[in-house]
């Protein structure tokens, strides 16, 4: 079939319309005298409408659409379910842990900053470093998606498309940082949800639905045609369950929104984002299933081309333009979040806590550091995007990598005995085991294969136990984890090591958990969690109202109503510059 293609003038016009509009929004909320804390977390008081839209838009990115469709094309009818459902549920799992994190660190900017207040420099650098890597990969993935889209639908080539998207995102995010990200997310998510509701059904019927599912059934393997496919679960579902839980806990783009939303609105915000993400991503992923039934093959065998080529084949020009805006909006809403996350890490963790120290950090210098970070990160992501790596592989890899951090981070917020040494050692050991298993650097057969299987079974118990702990209590979590290990062991030991992606992630969970627990259980001293709020807080000494989302001195609740913004706590209550946090005296 012939595909529709836009002229250069139309594509430029659509890009100017989208990025010009978002830039105008960002200038309306910007301030001539910018506030460093507002640039990072928008005053910690964003309301439900804006925060829920921002969380949804951040989690729904072009890569998630492309990857969901790839999963449908690869694994059949259950592929998008395994991708979208587990991803949606992981958003839901954020909120119980998020409430605890905000309770102990109400004015923090990054999770790494909280880890500095809890443990010291080493754990802070680990979490900050992993987020720099993760956000750069995420940024690169979104630029890849944009470059593919523009190159397929216009005369521009891939690199030119990447440069257009990168320049547009940087244009409006650089102006007012995180506030620009959350306020433009609201417009973007409304546009995306509306576009999906129109575009996906249209493509289905244009392709001959439902007859296409009857005539094209021969194109599927037995596993692809089985809704309860074990291949789909082991290859997509199970790795993604583990990977996205790690995303939920370790990802600074999510943590930034957790620290920005009004504390009382954490639960409804994440529940709403769960529903929005699941419906949209599963819906777009079904296009991959449709392509599988139709025998549709993306050009060059590149799965990143699947969604744009399906759209170009079956959509008329007007809806193709809407599709173009939908994908650009999806990738931009996450790319700006990555830029805001990277800037906050460099502002708060590198300059604010590391170079200058809390008491001597200059807010104006922090803003300069944040904006320069965005420029450098954009340049690096553009350079890496030229490699055109698989988006789905990148997502699963980063999530598995963060699996090494999940238990040490969560335990640090609940268990007063976790030490800095236990945190650092457990994470490094988990990474040392994860990499050889994930990339098969060491043959996983014989005795070593059984060792990997045992560790993976422990990882299953850890993942399910943490999920139950979030919504219940420690006793229920222990029982769930033990039952999960007992039930899975007979089936997993001896065969689980054949699934390198899944095993790598589970091993990272298990090794970090076992070592962190073993090194902390006999620790005599107990940490006083109340000191975290004193050690992790605002950098600006000015009025907190200057850090509000709309730049007017009033915090918005998503409906336009003004909210009271609490004044910042008194200065001088933080750890002196250049000193590691001292452990609190043992609890009496």
Automatic annotation (TrEMBL):
Family annotation (InterPro entries): Na/Glc_symporter_sf, Na/solute_symporter, Sodium:Solute_Symporter
Residue ranges crossing the lipid bilayer per the database entry: 6-25, 46-69, 81-98, 125-152, 158-178, 190-213, 233-250, 270-294, 314-335, 368-388, 394-415, 422-441, 447-469
Superkingdom of origin organism: Bacteria
CDD domains: SLC5sbd_DUR3
Subcellular location: Cell membrane
Glycoprotein recorded as keyword: no
Cytoplasm as UniProt keyword: no
Major place of residence: membrane
Composition-biased stretches (Low complexity): 544-553
Topology in the lipid bilayer: Multi-pass membrane protein
Xref: Pfam families: SSF
Family matches, as PANTHER family: SODIUM/PROLINE SYMPORTER-RELATED (PTHR48086), SODIUM_PROLINE SYMPORTER (PTHR48086:SF3)
Protein name: Sodium:solute symporter family protein
Organism (species): Streptomyces cathayae
């Amino acid at each position: 079939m012939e595909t529709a293609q836009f002229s250069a003038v139309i594509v430029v016009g659509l890009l100017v319309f989208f990025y010009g509009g978002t830039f105008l929004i960002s200038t309306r909320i910007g301030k001539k005298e910018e506030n460093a804390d507002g640039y990072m977390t928008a005053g910690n008081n964003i309301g439900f409408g804006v925060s829920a839209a921002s969380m949804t838009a951040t989690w729904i990115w072009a890569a998630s659409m492309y990857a969901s469709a790839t999963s449908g094309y690869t694994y059949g009818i259950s592929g998008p379910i395994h991708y979208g459902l587990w991803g949606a549920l992981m958003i839901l799992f954020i909120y119980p842990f998020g409430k605890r994190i905000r309770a102990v660190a109400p004015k923090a900017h990054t999770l790494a900053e909280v880890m500095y207040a809890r443990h010291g420099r080493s754990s802070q650098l680990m979490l900050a470093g992993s987020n720099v890597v993760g956000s750069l990969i995420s940024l690169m993935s979104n630029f890849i998606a944009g470059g593919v889209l523009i190159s397929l639908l216009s005369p521009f080539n891939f690199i030119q498309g990447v440069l257009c998207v990168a320049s547009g995102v940087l244009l409006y995010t650089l102006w007012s940082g995180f506030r620009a990200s959350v306020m433009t997310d609201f417009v973007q998510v409304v546009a995306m949800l509306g576009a999906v509701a129109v575009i996906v059904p249209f493509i289905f019927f244009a392709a001959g639905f439902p007859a296409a599912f009857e005539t094209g059934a021969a194109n599927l393997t037995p596993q692809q045609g089985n809704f309860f496919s074990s291949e789909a679960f082991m290859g997509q579902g199970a790795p993604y369950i583990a990977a996205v839980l790690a995303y939920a806990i370790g990802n600074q783009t999510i943590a930034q929104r957790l620290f920005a939303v009004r504390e009382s609105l954490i639960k409804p915000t994440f529940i709403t984002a769960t529903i929005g993400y699941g419906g949209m991503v599963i819906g777009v992923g079904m296009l991959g299933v449709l392509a599988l039934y139709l025998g549709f093959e993306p050009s060059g065998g590149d799965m990143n081309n699947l969604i744009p080529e399906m759209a170009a084949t079956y959509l008329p020009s007007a809806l193709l333009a809407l599709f173009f805006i939908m994908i650009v909006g999806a990738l931009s809403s996450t790319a700006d979040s990555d830029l805001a996350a990277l800037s906050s890490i460099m502002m708060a963790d590198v300059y604010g806590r590391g170079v200058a120290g809390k008491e001597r950090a200059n807010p104006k210098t922090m803003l300069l550091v944040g904006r320069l970070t965005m420029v450098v990160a954009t340049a690096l992501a553009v350079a890496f995007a030229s490699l055109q790596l698989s988006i789905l592989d990148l997502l699963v890899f980063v999530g598995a990598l963060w699996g090494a951090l999940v238990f040490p981070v969560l335990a640090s917020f609940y268990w007063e005995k976790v030490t800095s040494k236990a945190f650092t050692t457990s994470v490094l050991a988990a990474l040392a085991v994860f990499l050889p298993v994930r990339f098969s650097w060491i043959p996983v057969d014989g005795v070593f294969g059984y060792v990997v299987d045992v560790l993976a079974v422990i990882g299953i118990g850890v993942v399910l136990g943490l999920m139950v702990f979030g919504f219940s209590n420690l006793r229920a979590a222990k029982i769930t984890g033990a039952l999960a290990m007992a039930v899975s062991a007979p089936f997993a030991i001896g065969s689980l090591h054949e699934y390198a992606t899944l095993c790598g992630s589970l091993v990272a969970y298990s090794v970090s958990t076992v070592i962190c627990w073993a090194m902390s259980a006999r620790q005599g001293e107990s940490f006083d969690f109340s000191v975290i709020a004193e050690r992790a807080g605002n950098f600006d000494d000015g009025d907190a109202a200057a850090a509000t989302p709309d730049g007017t001195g009033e915090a918005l609740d998503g409906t336009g109503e003004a909210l009271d913004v609490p004044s910042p706590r008194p200065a001088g209550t933080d750890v002196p510059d250049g000193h590691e946090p001292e452990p609190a005296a043992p609890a009496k």
